Amino acid sequence: MGRSEAKKVLITGGTGFIVSHLAELLIENGYSVTCLVRDPSSLRWLSGLPIDVAVGDCSRPETLAKAVQHVSIIVHAAGLTRARRAREYYEVNQIGTRNMLEACSQYNPVIEKFILISSLAAAGPAGDGKPVRESDLPRPVSDYGRSKLLAEQEALGYRDTIPIVILRPSAVYGPRDRDMFELFRWASRGVMLEFIGKERFLNLCYVGDLVKAISLAMEKQTRSGSIYCVAEDRPYSWSEVKKALLFTGTVKALTIKIPYAAAYLIGLASELGSLFTSRPALTNRQKVREASQQFWTCDLAAIERELGFKAAY
């Protein structure tokens, strides 16, 4: 099948590390891929791939009409994970999603599926240690999580007219990632930070598994409005994560245990420092609040049952 005959997919967030892995998989599976990017001169990992590039910005609805036309599936992966100001999360994650949906409704009402890449942060932590289910009442603990939850609500508002699927990956890691990679950078400098108190647990999601879940969501018949958590099917303690990280990096690092108040001040200092740069801080008070939660775990029964997903990594 030639590219002109292949099913056409539009992916937003084109220069992100998840999107680059997804584009590679979809091309391998015979799809015709278009990536929505703000700056076509900076394609990063997309350079050299047989894709089409649409120039646009989810925050500017007037740039989206041409991009959404003549595609069968949209994977909306654009979003902010770090921001200098809280309102930026909502402008990009919530309003950007609304703009994409409105463009689809107006210029491509017969689209086969709209897949929103949300986050486990939208559901919030498992307060009682019982893995979060998609049907549980969401309790996000950060503006990032709240903005993702509002993006989900924007998508669900269109479920009667546009086939909607929402994926909630847990902490995503893998090649090209920068957020989780910071842990390796600190370890390579000989330092690892850990909260004083009880052991913490989380589900992890390898990027190769996430893009496989996205491809399954594209291919399988699903109810419009379906929500699925995506992760490896076991929780890890922070001690296990730390041990694996040090083993993989073949380094030794001193673990410094700090109270929440000290971590909060570190986050505040990092935020204040970012005010004098053009880049958001890697650590801030809200990231500290998220990291301090004891359980970031999720139930995978729905995605295993309905999509046949099973983490390979």
The topology string of helices and strands comes to: EHEEHEHEHHEEHEEHEEHEHHEH
Quaternary class = single chain
- Identify the overall geometry: globular
Determine the strand fraction and express it as a percent band.
Answer: 15-25%
Q: pLDDT under 50 segments (min length 5)?
A: none
Tell me the radius of gyration: 19 Å
Describe the secondary structure blueprint for this structure:
Layout: E1 8-12, H1 17-28, E2 32-37, E3 52-55, H2 65-68, E4 73-76, H3 86-107, E5 113-117, H4 120-123, H5 143-156, E6 164-169, E7 171-173, H6 181-188, E8 191-195, E9 201-206, H7 207-219, E10 226-230, E11 235-237, H8 238-249, E12 254-258, H9 260-274, H10 285-291, E13 295-296, H11 301-307
Parallel strand pairs: 1-2, 1-4, 2-3, 4-5, 5-6, 6-10, 7-9, 8-12, 9-13
Antiparallel strand pairs: 9-11
Helix pairs in contact: 1-7, 3-5, 9-10
